[in-house]
Amino acid sequence: MTIHIGAKSGDIAPTVLMPGDPYRAKWAAETFLDGARLVNDVRGMLGYTGTWHGNLVTIQGSGMGMPSLSIYANELITEYNAQTLIRIGSCGGMQDHVGIRDVILAMTASNISTPSRGIFKELNFAPCADYGLLTAAHAAATAKAVTTHVGGIYSADVFYDERPDLNELMVRHGILGVEMEAAELYNLAHRHKRKALAVLTVSDHLITKEALPAQDRESSFGDMVEIALAAAFPA
Ligand code: HPA
Question: Most exposed: 95, 108, 165, 229, by fewest CB within 10 Å?
Fold first, then answer.
């Protein structure tokens, strides 16, 4: 047990998928895992452990934003010895060639700040994904014929942004999408020598202003879960 996770030691698998939304953790566990059981419900941040193709997996909500994700990822790594952490979440598209429902595999995560800013201080550390997970996820997405983009994303601090110039700068520098968690997940993976990746579905678009219709969210989210699982356990 940790301050924020009620699971007993041994209840968390070495591989953890982390959606922002705890109800997505529940849905993904019930849909894709065998023998899924609830291992955490502290603060309603649901976590489930089960198996996928015989491999132990935990799906644990992270909450929204890097400060929340940082709490869960830190405790999963340092107290439960999680080795592979894959964020599964949504993002806003930032390029014309990136469409709604497309998948983005975040090679790097630019940011203004993360909860690790106090550690890095004057350094502009470059948080990046684990290459093995990235290539395995790309192979899985290609096999599923999901339109997939690999490149840099932007992990923002705020959803309701009063600085449109920052998004514009990211767009001009070829950043594929914006979300709010990946950079800190990558920082923690670097610090603790773990593997991390963010697999993201484009749910809205900053340029075209399109948004994924509610009825399509579940199937798009399902593709992402399967890509993450296949990346964690390549055949
Ligand atoms: N901004 C930040 N995070 C997001 C967005 C966005 O537009 N869409 C989905 N997650």
Answer: 165
